[in-house]
Specification:
The chain is mostly helical and 230 residues long. Helices cover 40% and strands 8% of the residues. A 3-stranded antiparallel beta sheet has the order 3-5-4, with no helix packed on it. α2 packs antiparallel against α3. The longest helix has 14 residues. The two termini are 38 Å apart. It comes from Staphylococcus lugdunensis.
Amino acid sequence: MVPTTIHKLDAFPMTINGKIDSKKLKKINTEKCSLNSYETTDSRDTRFMNIVMKVFQNKKLSKNDNFYDVGGDSILSIKLASELQDNGFNISSVEIMKSNDFNELFQKNIQHNSKFNQDPVFGKINLFPMQKWFFSQEFHNIHHWNQSNEFEIFGQFDELDFQTIYYAIREKHDAIRSYFQRINMEYCWLVKENNLEDSKKEIQYVDSSHFNINNINELKRNLHKTINIF
């Protein structure tokens, strides 16, 4: 087993029988430090890790930490990629989830050309470790493992505006066009090309001006049930 934290002690607290006093040991107030933490000297290097720590809300992370080991998932990868790109780092969410640690991720940014490849992705993609774990659990009602968000949008928009906006979002975020297949007892992750007709079918317009909170929650539950990952 590899420890995640190190506690520096002058001496172990002992019982009268000469054994380590585990109760006193737990009460000792020590400053926890990351096993891999170290001071960075390069300003860009430091800025990179400051963004990572901000997204994870954890100031004890180091470049040697693994994205998944510190609580990373697909949602955090998108958020981290967005924050990094806003600050001049050319790193995608896919690269984040494929990296062994944050140092490898930082090196990928250095190796990138100045122009970031924004071409849409489609075809077969290898499953990430978290996805492999998910399918191995054989959960009941597998399609219902999703999230929802509610946004308040100001301004005048019609259905055509939303279709145009959603199509552009669908083009940029490959995960929206992704689905899974089970082939020879193994799951495969596939991404479709962007298609205007498909994007139109994925949008549902509901007049909720007369809805109360119960109506809105019921609408959300029904939308959750319509999602099919295959």
